[in-house]
Amino acid sequence: MIEFRDVDKWFGSLHVLKRINLKVSGGEVVVVCGPSGSGKSTLIRCVNRLESIQSGEIIVDGQSLLDPKFDPSKLRTDVGMVFQSFNLYPHMTVLQNITLAPTKVKGLAAGEAEKVAKELLDRVGIPDKAGVYPANLSGGQQQRVAIARALAMKPKIMLFDEPTSALDPEMINEVLEVMTDLAHDGMTMVVVTHEMGFARRVAHRVVFMDEGQIIEEGKPETFFGAPQSPRAQQFLGKILSH
Amino acid sequence: MTYNFDWSVLWRGQSGLWLLQGLVTTIEISVVAWVVAFTLGIFSGAVRTVSITPLRWLASFYVEFFRNVPLLVWMFFWYFAVPPLLPQPLQDWLFDHGAEFWAGVVALGVYHGARFSEVMRSGIQSIPKTLFEAAVSTGLTMAQAYRLIIIPIALRLIIPPATNESLNLIKNSSVALTIGVAELTFQTRQIETYTAKAFEALTAGTLIYLVLCLAIATTMSQLEKRFAIPGMITKRQTGEF
Ligand SMILES: Nc1ncnc2c1ncn2[C@@H]1O[C@H](COP(=O)(O)OP(=O)(O)OP(=O)(O)O)[C@@H](O)[C@H]1O
Ligand SMILES: [Mg+2]
To answer: What are the residue ranges spanned by the domains of chain B?
Structure first.
């Protein structure tokens, strides 16, 4: 579903992704973790072309992002993304947030889009918030709306960049539950997170990055049980001691 | 002190009519110039924040060029320098239809357009970049993301500085008297010439400007409340003159 082939990326002189090779198959849930600044966000932002790469190749759903005919907007209808800061449109109601892209990009009729939006709000557990403005929701509710907004485009892949890092502890679980359901429904997911409980329970694979490189990858039980590299051991030591 | 106040000069003879005509012309030139300035400003201000470099340069060039030449020079330029370059029929038409008015509109429009552009740019730049990224990552094109999300939010955020800039435009419309537009300041000068009562005439002009600007400021702050984004507090900004 997603394939990185020898991908390199620089920000100016800063080499942020170094020879990345990674494959994510359909239905797979991959958790990406690693220290701050290791390039996790950059890695997943390359998948929906929020960042461009300088060498190598990325193939998403059979299409190379280097193809001259490649259209980023088209790609992004198939790849949903959820950010750390929820980024809801503050001047629109929850319902409008969710129906905007389906009506404007896919040309769905307003009634149809609203029906889809209400189903999604049901699914993320806040059916009664359709008419509310984002500012009047809690962080956990906002993030669930953001997930619903991404799902409204019926994407094949969902990217999450630290979706629970900005949340108060008591709201983290309500978001993780929605993500877990999504994983169980067979969504292909790449999740940057430090929620190791979620990684253990839900991920098929864990990818550990440091300084722009993939240092280690494996099944959660292997990675958490017996990390191979000293850097991963050190990282897990820090995280788990909290 | 030997000055004899005579406020009745303001309603004797034609003074009242002149003031009224002046006010109407001030409003006319300001409104038309405002539409030009606002359109140019919103558009070029938005373009200055996009990632397409040639477009951004073009918009920056417009802003720097028009903002850094004194308004008075623009008035003279559009009134004295440009019309002779136009085809004769157009020149004839212009001079039959108040060339000074249209020169004033263009001068005020492009000058304040450049200043509105700055207001718009900083409004857009105060919106977190990730909001734009979230919009395009749902498949919206850059143009759609600007039209549906970035510009509507920015327009609400810029109401206070844009109001300031609009009031500056009204006040600057008085510069159009130098090319013969019979606006409010022009008319107060005329009353002064006819009655030799400078203090009374200018006081009347001053008060009319004051009432006009206060009325607009009040309306705009109502508008700001009416369109406020829930949960978003817009900081009140004060502009420089
Ligand atoms: N737009 C940018 N311009 C320049 N440098 C950038 C940019 N975005 C990220 N970087 C740098 O690239 C490196 C990798 O950043 P990235 O955001 O991918 O790390 P991360 O692993 O997601 O870290 P964090 O856990 O803090 O989110 C960092 O050194 C960062 O400072
Ligand atoms: Mg990050």
So the answer is: 11-226
Distance from the CA of B51 to the center of ligand 1, in angstroms? 19
- pLDDT tens digits, one per residue of A91-101: 999 999 999 99
Which of the pair, A70 or A130, is modelled with greater confidence?
Answer: A130
Atom from ligand 1 closest to the CA of residue A39: 18
| Residue B83, token pair as written in the block | 């019309």
Provide the shortest C-alpha distance from residue B224 to chain A (in Å). Answer: 13
- Residue among A36, A41, A83, A160 to mutate when testing ligand 1 (max atoms within 8 A of CB): A41
Determine the average pLDDT of the residues in B78-86.
92
Do A89 and B140 count as a contact with CB atoms less than 8 A apart?
Answer: no
B151 to chain A: closest CA residue: A91
Does 1.10.3720.10 match the CATH number of domain B11-226? yes
> What is the predicted pLDDT for the residue at B233?
52
What is the value of ipTM here, to two decimals? 0.93
| A133-159 tens-digit pLDDT | 999 999 999 999 999 999 999 999 999
- CB nearest A135 (choices: B131, B156, B231): B231
Q: Give the per-residue pLDDT at B235.
A: 41
B168-172 long-range contacts (CB < 8 A, ≥24 apart) are B168/B112, B168/B115, B168/B239, B168/B241, B169/B30, B169/B33, B169/B34, B169/B37, B169/B108, B169/B112, B170/B26, B170/B30, B170/B209, B170/B212, B170/B213, B170/B216, B171/B209, B171/B213, B172/B71, B172/B108, B172/B111, B172/B112
Nearest residue, CB atoms, A91 vs list B136, B140, B156:
B156
